[in-house]
Amino acid sequence: MAEDTPPSCSSDSAILRLHQLLASCSLSIEAGDYSGSDRSVSELVDFLNPVSDSTAREADDEDAERKAFRILTEIHRCMTSPSLSQEVVETLSFELPKSVCRVACASKRCSDLAECFIDSLLEKCSPREMLSILCDALSSPDKQFRTTLYYAPLLSGIAKVLLRIQRRQFQQVKSAVPVILRILNHTTLEMDDEDPDADYGTLFFKAIDIANSIQAVCEKLTDKQKLQAFFGLFILQLMALVSIDSRARTSHFLPIVIHLSHFLHLCGFSYIGLITGFDVDRISNMMVQGE
């Protein structure tokens, strides 16, 4: 009778296969073989999908978590290698963020490593393209991956990439904010309160990081009125989402409310203006006039 394959052997064979797939991607991309590179990248994604599916099904499987961490470590090592060409990095950046964040659902340390991987892409790839890639990955996970561990690296990446965009900042922020709000709305209304990985506070603090980035962009612009008005609406919507979620976790969300209140004052809101609706009407009219 054949013996079961030890977990370490299974992990070793997976790493070997990963190296082969990454090498195949690199060779075909650098050779300008477009059909071959598309096929190689698809094979890499197809290899990663069962890994993430396994960790999603067996959340407490330590062997699956270790395998996922090893795979993410190797991907990060490969993508940060000085020998990897810019063309290869850019090509893989279109597909890997989503696949990597799916695998990252295995554990908190995997999610942290996925954030490092995304940071490495931000260093090398076009900020505008990366913003689009991250927003796409945020908005399209399968149901089993709609967790904090999946979303956190992507939100962190958006906070960082917004600071790198040099042109058409308002349009870029305007395209990203609805995606962010949809994710936060999902976490407040649909996620299972009993889910041990449902660390809602983490996602709201990531949203605050994004708000800090938008505020920093505002400060650099000479014509900032429209972006600042949009920023104010973003903060008000965050406050509304926090108020929904904080019914059962008021003390947990107090630091978040304090941060958001600070932003309200930076946007020129007053408590009187918010109570009467004057401030909301003012910035809403500003947004309409700016269309």
TrEMBL record:
- State the UniProt keywords alphabetically: Membrane, Transmembrane, Transmembrane helix
Which InterPro entries does this UniProt record tie to the protein?
Glomulin/ALF4 (IPR019516), YAP-bd/ALF4/Glomulin (IPR013877)
Q: GO terms for molecular function, please?
A: ubiquitin-protein transferase inhibitor activity
Would you name any one GO CC term? cytoplasm
Superkingdom in the source lineage? Eukaryota
Q: Which organism is it from?
A: Cuscuta campestris
- The keyword Transmembrane belongs to this UniProt entry's keyword annotation: yes
- The regions listed as transmembrane in this protein's record are 227-244, 256-278
Q: What is this protein called?
A: Uncharacterized protein
Question: Record keywords: Transmembrane helix included?
Answer: yes
Q: What is the lineage of its organism?
A: Eukaryota, Viridiplantae, Streptophyta, Embryophyta, Tracheophyta
